[in-house]
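User: Look at the shape:
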Amino acid sequence: MESLAPGIPITDAAIATLSLRPWPGNIRELRTTLQRALLRRRAPFVDESCFEDIGIPAHADQDSCDLCRSRPLSRAKCREIRSVYRATACNISQTARKLDLSRTTVYKHVREK
């Protein structure tokens, strides 16, 4: 990503979304997907919503918690927390450290009711 657009960050949730699709050794396909995502971004970073129209389902398996589902501004952050939580093998402490959040905040978004 750094060689495509230096200084443009990519969220952990976007990386998790990319990992949902098989990339059978085709780096050109991945590069093209990232280029398209850069063109579709609506913020100063690439997030999972940048992949909606290019064959990668945004938010696939990354639902938000009950508290955030009805609040659009909270949903994206919640999805990112839940995505990183899964990527760290459901480790609360690692998730909190990676996202610079408190463990309580992570618990709030990943606990099942």
